[in-house]
Amino acid sequence: MTDPDAAATDDAVTVTVYSDYVCPFCYLGRRSLDRYRDQRPEDAPDLTVDWHPFDLRSQTRRPDGSIDPAAGGKDDDYYEQARENVRRLQDKYDAEMAIDLATDVDSLDAQVVSYGVKQTRPHETWLAFDEAVFAALWQDEADIGDPDVLASLTEDVGIDPAAVRSALADDSLRETVTDRFEAAKQRGITGVPTFAYDDHAARGAVPPEHFRRLIEGA
């Protein structure tokens, strides 16, 4: 599962992450990855994230862009089980969350803006924006599909808010993001989060020790 688009950072360990901001397990998986990063020895190489977008709303997005949660084929029992799993992992990873699910939120525009930031700004700036988007949805219950919310988040990480309007009006960038969705499927990514490293992968909000086995083989 080596990713040809993975970031090449000297003296760093790069984990490829396929995720969608509206997935609570993507948020929780990243919190677990942060825990693993904190547990690494001080002299270990830096751990970086090479994020690839994934569109969980493709089957529930109406032609006008609005979301129909009922169109995904998931029943009440599925959502209740998902909520229970989110609460369990939230407690396990001590993750701050104001909501369990966000079935009516669309992250497509957030992913377009994030991918634009990733392609044009330093990794640290993209990471700050990426974490801000996750926090805005799962901690602040903000609508990350709202351009004004995205503009505020870019400004918070030192990016001119006008970059949001520019990114959302860039048909080429949006097409590239759509292509990334399809490329992920062609690589065998069927669900998120998926964490890939050195021809191996882990799917779901796995615990820190799982990342240790994935990355260190220990």
Plain-language structure description:
With 218 residues, the chain is of the alpha+beta class. It has a single domain (12-216), classed as 3-Layer(aba) Sandwich (Glutaredoxin). 48% of the residues lie in helices and 11% in strands. The protein is built from 8 helices and 4 strands. The mean pLDDT is 94.
Number of E strands: 4
CATH architecture: 3-Layer(aba) Sandwich
- The CATH class is identified as Alpha Beta
How would a textbook summarize the main sheet?
4 strands, mixed
Q: Quick check: average pLDDT? A: 94
Which terms would index this structure?
single chain; alpha+beta; Glutaredoxin; globular; four-stranded mixed β-sheet; 218 residues; 4 strands
Tell me the layout of helices and strands:
Blueprint: E1 12-19, H1 24-39, E2 46-53, H2 76-93, H3 108-120, H4 123-138, H5 147-156, H6 162-168, H7 171-186, E3 194-197, E4 200-203, H8 208-216
Parallel strand pairs: 1-2
Antiparallel strand pairs: 1-3, 3-4
